[in-house]
């Protein structure tokens, strides 16, 4: 007896448009996750990738009046990505209590980053820790053409000696293509330990592979359009292009810095434009 073939299921128009939004979110998530893996190569988790996709879909569905199938992730509040942890097992604040402050300068265009003074009570590490390696990066995500360009700071070595481990620092990171891009600021920290089983004059500390002692976090998310810092956007999307990842490892140096109220600095900059 022959079984009847089930009729093909026809998707509704809204379902087809929702599929387009999901594809767009998935392509942007793929670009951002590649940046995460370049910041911290040991991080590779399907669950983390799915969490990132969910956050991007939330951005697309909230704060946008555009119909389904025409939404982009910058149409919503991009700050939904702030706080995303690269290492699902350890947060950045569990290793080092350091909250960077950022000021976006769209007219220059550049990003100013301020780090507070770090003391011994602000860090947590295992016995035998030699130093912490801190690094920051900022990626310019083009959600229309599906490309990303990443800029890196010089790594900061924070030795585990004395009460004050590191003085306050600042840097200005040039972002020549920030206009029309989502800016994601990422902080990572790695722990370097002495190996008790290796001896000699030229022995160097080794990076810990214990997942409790390395972490990364998205500490800032912004969207810039027409030379202004915005949160919500209604621009119509453009034609799709193939995904590209441009990663130039030119590192920007840090400078000594006195404490600055970045909230007032950002407000003052916006008022002067």
What would you note in describing this structure?
Mean pLDDT is 79; it is low at 233-248 and 258-262. A hairpin with a 4-residue loop joins strand 1 and strand 2. It is globular and about 70 Å long. The chain has three helices and 14 strands. It has helices at residues 13-39, 46-61, 262-272, and strands at residues 101-105, 110-115, 118-119, 129-142, 147-153, 156-159, 164-166, 169-174, 182-193, 206-207, 214-225, 228-230, 244-252, 255-256. The strands form three sheets. Strands 4, 5, 6, 9, 10, 11, 12 and 13 form an eight-stranded mixed sheet that branches. The protein has one domain (77-272). It starts with 12 loop residues before the first helix and ends with a helix. Helix 1 packs across helix 2. The protein is an alpha+beta fold and 273 residues long.
What number of domains?
1
Helix content, binned percent = 10-25%
Strand-and-helix sequence, N→C?
HHEEEEEEEEEEEEEEH
Radius of gyration of CA atoms, rounded to a whole number = 22 Å
Strand count, sense and barrel status of the largest sheet are: 8 strands, mixed
- List unreliable stretches of 5+ residues: 233-248, 258-262
Number of strands: 14
Oligomer: single chain
Mean pLDDT: 79
Category by helix and strand content? alpha+beta
Molecular shape: globular
Tell me the β content: 25-35%
Q: Span from first to last CA? A: 78 Å
